[in-house]
Every structure is written in C-alpha cells, then in structure tokens.
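I am writing to request your help with a piece of structural work I have in hand. What I wish to show you is a protein chain and, alongside it, a tokenised description of its three-dimensional fold. Could you please explain, in whatever detail you think fit, how the structure tokens follow from the sequence? You will find the record immediately after this paragraph.
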Amino acid sequence: MSFFTHVLACLFGMGSWVAINGMWVELPLIVSELPEGWYLPSYLTVLIQIANIGPLLVTLMHHFRPGVLNENAVIYVIVAVGMLASFLLAFFWRDTVEVGGIPRSVPLLVLTLFLSTVDCTSSVTFLPFMMRLKPQYLTSYFIGEGLSGLVPALTALIQGVGVVHCRNLTWTLNDTSANSTGAGAASDGLQAIYQPANFSAQVFFIFLSVMMVVCLVAFLLLNHHPAVSRERQKNNRYLNGGIGAGEKGDLAFSLNHQAEQKPMISLLDPPPRAPRSSFGRGTYTAPELLFIFVVLAWVNALTNAVMPSVQSYSCLPYGNRTYHLAATMAAVANPVACFIAMFVPIRSLALMGFLTVTGTGFGAYIMTMAVLSPCPLLVHESTGTILMVGAWVLFILTLSYVKVIIGVILRDEGHNALVWCGAVVQLGSMLGALSMFPLVSVYNFFTSGDPCNTKCSLE
C-alpha cells in the first residue's frame, strides 16, 4: 500500500463535510450578530434537508441512466462550489436583506444552502469514486471524513468560540472594557460573559475555503498522479467516470478481483457459491441486506441529526468545560474508530448488531440527561461530568465503527452498492433531523439552563 495514496484519500474525505461541520461549530460566535439569533440552527437544519435534492438526483441518475453520469465532473463541480461558497461567506456572512420589512441573513442562508448541497451530494459521489482504488484506501477515506468534524472543532477551540466566564453583575455593569460582550439573562448577581474570539469569523470561513482547496488538490492527484495509478483496481470498469454495464460491471470486477487474489486455482477448492441475491455480488441475502441498510440509516440518524441536536442540553448543565470537552473528544472518537477499523475490519453482522445496540444505549443515556436538563442526574458531581463525556465518546466510537464496517461491506458489493450506501446515509440523516426539529424548535421539549445561574436541588 502507498502511504501517499492513504494521505490523499484522507484529505479527499476531509472535504466531504468540513464546510457544514465548520458552520455548526462557528454558530456560537456569529448568532449574536445576526437577526435570526439562536433560531438560526433551526433554519440551517431545514436548509440541509432541502439540499438532499442533490444526492436524490444523483441516485436516480445511477438507477435509471447507468453509465451516463460522469462522477469525476460532478465531484469537480461540487468541490469548486463548496470552495467558492466558503470564500464568499467570509465577506458576506453578516450582510442582511429586508424581507417583508424584516432584516434577514439572506446571503448567509443562500450560501449555506450551496454548502449543504455540496456536502450532502458528496455522500453519493465521493464514496463510489473510492471504488476505483484498492479496498484498503476506503478506511483512509472514512478517517478523513471523521477529521472533517474534528479539524473545524479544534480550530474553533483555538479561536475561543463559546468560552464563557461568570462574573458578578454589579462588577459587570461597571466594566467599561470594549473587549467583553454580555449574553444571557442575569439573576442572583451573576451574568454570563462570553470571551471575545482570538480571530474573526471571516478568517474561519477563509480557512474552510482553504480546506476545500486541499480536497480539490487531493482529488486531482488521486486522478492523475502516477503513484496513485498503481494503486487503482486493475481492469476496473469505473476508471472513466460512470459505471459501465451496471451490475454486470460489478460482477466483472468481482471475478477479476478473485483472479488477482487466487492466481492458482486448486482442484480441491469448492465450486463458487451461487449468488444469494441480485444485489451487488450476491454475498448477502435480502433480509441481511435489509438489516445492513436499516442499521446504516439508524446510526446515521443518531450520529448526524438526533444526538447533535441535543448535545448542548445534555452537556451544558454540567458546565461549559464539560460541553467543550465532550464535543472535542467525540470528534476525536470518529477518526479513532476509523483507524481501529483499518486494522480490525470485523464484518460480522452479529457484531454489527451488538455494537449498534450498545451505541444506542449510550445515546439513550445522553438523551435522558438532555430531557432532564437543566437539572440532570449528578449535575453537581464530577462523576456526572465523567459519565457524560464518556457516554459521548463511546457513543461516537461504537457507531462510527459500525458505519465504517458497513462501508467496507458495501464496497465489496460494487459501485452501485456504494451509491446506495450514500443515499441511505442521507436518508437516515434527513429522517433524524425531521424528527428532532419539531421537538427542539417548535414544541420546546428541551429546556436549556443559564451557565451561571441555574440552581438545582441537591436532593
């Protein structure tokens, strides 16, 4: 295996969701300067779901017009759009336009819609493109996809987004320092003071644009660098963008792959097994495929939509430090899970089911604490902080491993299987977001606490 190709696959994967992940971690800094305020996350959730029109169109094209869509061209376009939209955000994110006499952040919302379309469409284009390389490089891609959340999170920590200090209200009112901004309601003589950022939102959005440039360069090298060409699948029918003869191409790839692995055929070898289904290579039966895709939709609904929407409610009652520690360590857990899967790629469906149930159990604990906010269990104890951070890390670690293993399984089933993998990822994320949006933003099912003044009974 080529280390250079592993690095390129990782950098290519980082461009998949870095823009939208970056937008989410930057929200604490920009909402105070926008007319939508803290309703902005709700608007972003809706925009991301509208952006699923991109992967829907790509999936339909692959299904009804196989071989017509040029994947290389689509990837070049969406990466270029992501790069341009991130760059324009740096200069227009705070501009407003009056809509019905009310100022609205129209430039930011429109550019975010473009970024959402780019990232959603990457699920059904980046993954199938990795079919052209040897199977080992798919895990490197997933590591990069995990880093697409970690890198913006670490950058936001360096920037100092959301760092809060509690100060006596009387002292704060007399403080004339121009470097401090107050936020939140005051009671009991305390007020939450958010520390000014170390660098501006404009610099952060330019950084996101640079990350998209890195993704574009990595994609160019994956297509044209001589060292990478030696790592491509031999006789692969997907090298020119398209899927050739559809499932027949998958079968041809399967036969060639088997021939490479076993150049000497022994007479004692058992005859090849008949396909167990018409999907891909026919390795799995229809019920097993249904199980795989249901698990894929479930874990992506939890990790991409359901649990992130309640992260602040579950963590902030234990303190701002707990919130940032949980967010950062959970972001680290994603690429760690991918790294583990690189060396321990266990494809057992029973283990997949066990890990899914285990990860869901950790998610259930997190959700319970979010429902109990602002006074969850052990809120005054260091044990509560340890349990919450540990629950987030183990939740992301187990379900991220499941996602990688499913990706590896479907990669072996062929190009079409990876297209459907990306489509189900987006479907699960969309269903999770649509289920949580009314609970969080319409019915106010969850209650947030003041980081400085919330009082909970010790009993």
Summary: Residues 382-412 form the longest helix (31 residues). Residues 176-188, 237-270 have pLDDT under 50 and may be disordered.
